[in-house]
């Protein structure tokens, strides 16, 4: 296994000074609607508004001083970029972010605000990879992959550690799968602390590469996702594939309508701003609670983040 | 004074089994934008989604068993009605809610869900008051005023008690004023725990009856409010007028544009769903921080609630 429980425990100690211990929220009214007793681990309240702060800090603070001095690089332009900039700033080193020249202004400003060095490139994956490779070659900076890296996986697993510390009686834990870093880390942490807990992955049916990979045993790398859950459009990483195959008890996919309904329910009843990706495990309870055998059970949900465009909410015309 | 610090302490003990101790949130990024060190007391996470649960439980659990058996009544149809229904259910007694027959469906359903007995009437204040008076006459139920009642004021003050318990170093405390129950309770609790804390009331300029009352010394009762902060459209109550005149250090009014900007900032950065009324103290920091002498200070803000219509957000066309 590329990552073990002790790696997650070590990550928790390493990142503790730099990230928030986020609260766990409950709602009797939401429980009644979902038919479970749900505990929401609110990573939307995490630094930079998403769980990605955990993995990035673990990766950056795992570097040797020598490697760290040469900086870090990524060509992911979303929450991972912001997280990497923050972690690099905390360590006092440079973060280089390769971004397509048509990147949304909000993402560019977020990286600038956090002190990242932006290098623009043509809006293709090849151009982004080439840009990052050139920085690595020229500066010796370390490329930090957004999800398929053992340090990232161990860092993301710390959210589940805290959740199980606050709610040790959980029967099951649910998270969404994009590249799989969060789900893999969650599975490792949960299985380590509580060997008999049920670990359930959730994914949009319209971005079900990880589900098909898990079911078939052959990793899907060429799907064309089409989901509102923009954080889950990436393909499952190789390390994460290995971990999910080994540790998951179940895996369900959900409809786009279910994601929107679940997102709105959480905003309306829990009064928190969550992104569509965070609504995927909630949609899984709405659509598959009985089949998953979770009715009446104590269920932990990792709320991934809250970075949404408030001008364009999915339930509005 | 109609209410003293010990009344708030007694209320806190009385309501503790029935209401949430809500979290206090902070954000470095929001602090940078507001120019203060802000602590947000999140009553949007309170039972029924608003601080009103506190006062209603204190009023209902202050009744003698004999009076309680005859039930409670209100003709307020918003958060106070929902709060009264919940408190009555917790005590095992009836709550009668007089509502106009054109009340929004969401409010009717909220009261039904909480087990309240609805009596519809014509959509005028006279009809509502007559309906409530008839219930009092026929059943002996106790009318619980939504804000101008010492039990309600003492209950609302418990939010500030908890805030100062979690953040004892605050230099100032801010809340919005509608009928004044929350602001009066907050002022009593804060002054009791921390005699030198600055107590600042905030109100929309387009619903400034309390501000004008406070400044002139003559209570304004006939204003025509026109603000997006729907929770603050009521006139200042008589008890609350007395308390605010005695205890406030300052009082500022804010623009409608400031309220919308502040509400959006809180959603975007703190990742919580708050109603426009809750944004009024935040708008006060945006518009009056320097004049209030709060730059760089530790400021507590009571976030009143999170019951909003997600289909109609004020920053959208």
Count every beta strand of chain A, where a strand is a DSSP E run of 2 or more residues: 10
CATH topology heading of the largest domain in chain A: Rossmann fold
Distance, first to last CA of chain A? 46 Å
What is the global morphology of chain A? Answer: globular
**Which spans of chain A have pLDDT < 50 for at least 5 consecutive residues?**
none
* Rg of chain A, Cα atoms, Å: 18 Å
Order of strands across the widest beta sheet of chain A?
1-2-10-7-8-9
Structural class, judged by helices and strands of chain A?
A: alpha/beta
Q: Mind telling me the CATH class of the largest domain in chain A?
A: Alpha Beta
Number of helices of chain A: 14
Taken in chain order, the helices and strands of chain A follow as HEHEHHEHEHEHEHHEHEHHEHHE
Provide tags for this entry.
homodimer; 317 residues; alpha/beta; Rossmann fold; 2 domains; six-stranded mixed sheet; magnesium ion binding (chains A, B); threonine racemase activity (chains A, B); lyase (chains A, B); pyridoxal phosphate binding (chains A, B)
């Amino acid at each position: 296994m590329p990552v073990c429980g002790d790696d997650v425990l070590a990550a928790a100690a390493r990142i503790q000074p730099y990230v928030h211990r986020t609260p766990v929220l409950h709602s009797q009214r939401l429980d009644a609607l979902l038919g479970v007793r749900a505990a929401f681990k609110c990573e939307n309240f995490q630094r930079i508004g998403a769980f990605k702060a955990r993995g990035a800090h673990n990766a950056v603070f795992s570097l040797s001083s020598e490697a760290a001095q040469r900086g870090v690089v990524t060509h992911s332009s979303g929450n991972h970029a912001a997280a990497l900039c923050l972690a690099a700033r905390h360590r006092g080193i440079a973060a280089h972010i390769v971004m397509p020249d048509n990147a949304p202004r909000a993402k560019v400003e977020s990286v600038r605000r956090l002190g990242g060095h932006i290098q623009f490139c043509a809006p293709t994956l090849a151009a982004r990879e080439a840009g990052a490779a050139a920085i690595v070659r020229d500066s010796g900076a370390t490329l930090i992959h957004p999800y398929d890296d053992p340090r990232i996986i161990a860092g993301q697993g710390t959210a589940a550690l805290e959740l199980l510390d606050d709610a040790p009686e959980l029967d099951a834990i649910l998270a969404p799968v994009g590249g799989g870093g969060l789900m893999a880390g969650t599975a490792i942490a949960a299985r380590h602390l509580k060997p008999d807990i049920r670990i359930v992955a959730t994914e949009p049916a319209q971005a079900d590469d990880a589900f098909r990979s898990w079911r078939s045993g052959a990793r899907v790398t060429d799907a064309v996702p089409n989901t509102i859950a923009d954080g889950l459009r990436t393909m499952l990483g190789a390390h994460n594939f290995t971990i999910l195959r080994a540790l998951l008890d179940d895996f369900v996919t959900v409809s786009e309508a279910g994601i929107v309904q679940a997102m709105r329910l959480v905003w309306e009843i829990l009064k928190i701003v969550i992104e569509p990706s965070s609504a995927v495990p909630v949609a899984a309870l709405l659509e598959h609670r009985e089949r998953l055998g979770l009715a009446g059970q104590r269920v932990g949900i990792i709320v991934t983040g809250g970075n949404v465009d408030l001008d364009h909410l999915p339930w509005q015309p």
